[in-house]
Every structure is written in structure tokens, then in C-alpha cells.
Design brief:
CATH class of the largest domain: Alpha Beta
Strand content: 5-15%
Shape: elongated
Radius of gyration: 29 Å
CATH architecture of the largest domain: 2-Layer Sandwich
Number of helices: 10
CATH superfamily of the largest domain: Histidine kinase-like ATPase, C-terminal domain
Length: 338
Amino acid sequence: MSVRPAHFAIPELCNTTALALLVLFSQLLVVVLLFAGGEISWVRFGLMSLFVQWVALVSAGVLCGLRGRLARFSLGVGTTLAFAVVLVVTAVIGVIAEWALDRGGDAWARIAGQMVIAGIITGLFLRYFYVQQRLRLQEQAELQSRIQALQSRIRPHFLFNSMNIIASLIATDPDTAESVVEDLSELFRASLNEAGNQVPLTEELDLCERYLRIEGLRLGERLQLDWQVQKAPDTVQIPMLTVQPLLENAIYHGIQPLPEGGTIRICVEYEGDEVAISITNPIPGSLQQQESEGNRMALANIRSRLNVLYGNKARLDTRAMEDSFVTELRFPRMPATA
């Protein structure tokens, strides 16, 4: 798959981690330049460190301030402007350094040399960021395809069962049949929604209730539900169709194989800045059904979605207990911006 970024993008340089790496790399560059030629002394090392750090930090500050504006330009224009910013900063600091030190000689030649070195380093950095941007966009495009495949997948037998339920209820209980049609239409609407779209947690839980109502009509008393849900704040959002596939797995791999059925417990809690959602279902004799290919695929897709939106701040874990299987989802309370 080939992905070509449409706009130039500079990574966030104004945070503690980025600045620490920038200072470290700049100091390593000073060491290389020190041993590349000329007198080796603490005075020269100190002056070079001061100059390089000033160039690096001021350039990072200016690029941070222009980050939003540069993102509006095409790749070529944005790269040229970022390159020009670093050269201008290097020239200005070089002029100030020559004036302060008053070393005499050909000051402009020294400034030109400094700009050449800064240009080479900047070119390498911009090339690195360009490659990273392409890889990130390619990963996102591939993930979007997997997300769309997950959201568009409604099990055929679930659809057929739902239609059979509707057909059997039309003559005897038209109101319930109409309710099933409404619930099924909402599930289809969600499955066709834009991939990765985030919705309030209350909307996702409402979608889960609609799904479970349809399955309840099919399974009858075999399906028991235990809702333990704290009231969700309006600011809590979640990628659409994240919890519903977990409930689908719990029914098809936990309840359906058991002739007597069982209870699915849905627990939603808020622990500090995290939302914790756990789904517990009975184990039908062995773990083989829980480890089926379909179950693993759904879990892998959801983990990928969470990773793109929240990074390592979200996780999806599963564990088998003596007579039950627990799926636990944790993610930040604040909406993701990725």
C-alpha cells in the first residue's frame, strides 16, 4: 500500500521528552565537531555547546510556534520553510556570537560554515521526520481498513436469527417486532459509521443494550444479564463498536454453547483518570472455544484501534478463571484526539 502525505507535518518539539532528546543529540553533535578538527579545549567545548544549544532550542521554539501554520502547506513548501527557519536562526545567532566574541578575521566565512552544518543536520532531521510521517500514515491507513472490516461485520447468522425473530413476532406481537427492527437498524447504522468514530460511552452502552435485547429474544432465559454500570460523565468517549463485539464474543463463546445458558456481567467503573469496563461470561467446559480464531481477530482489531487512539494509555486484557472468562478494557476518560 502506498501512502503519500498531503501536508507537511512537524512533530511536537515543545515537550519535556522532545527537548531532552534535542539537547542530548545537540551535545553529541558538539563532541563530534570538537574532535573533527581544531583545538581541543574546555573553552572551545563550552563555546561550541552554547552556540549549538542556542541554535537547537531557538529553532525548536520557532518551529513549535509555526507548527500549525506549516501544516497547511504542501510537503515541498513546508519542508523549504522549515529549512529556511533553521538557517535564519543559525545566521542570527552566528552574527550575535561573532559580535560578542569579536574574534576578528573572516566572520562571514565562519557564519557560512555554521549554516552549512546546520543545513546538513536539518536536512537529515527533516528526511527522518518525512519517513516517519509516511510510515505513520501507512499504518493508520492499514488500521482504518481493519477497523472498517470490523465495524462492517455483522455475523450472518445473527442477521438471519434477527429476521426470523421479526417474522415470528409480526403476527403475534407486532410492537415487539417493531422494537427489534429499530434495534437492528441502529446496529446497522453503527456498523456503517465512519471507522474509528468516537461516541459518548452512554451511546455505546445503549447500542449494547439493543444488541442484547435481540439476543435475549433468541436465547430466552438462557441469557441472564448483570449490569453494574456507574453513571458515565458526558466527557467520556469511546470508539464506536468497541464494547458490543466483546459482548458478542461473550454470547457466542460463553452462553450459546451451554444448554442451560448463563449470566453475563457487565461492569463499568471509573478509577481516577481511567474508565474500566469488564465483561464476565461462563466458560463452556474448556478454553478451546474462547481461543477461537474469530475471538482472537475481534480482540486484535479492538487492541489496534485503542493503540492508535490512546497509545499505551489503553489496554484490553483477558483472563480465564475457574468457571468464567473475563475481558477487561481500560482507556483514558478524556476523549482521544488521534
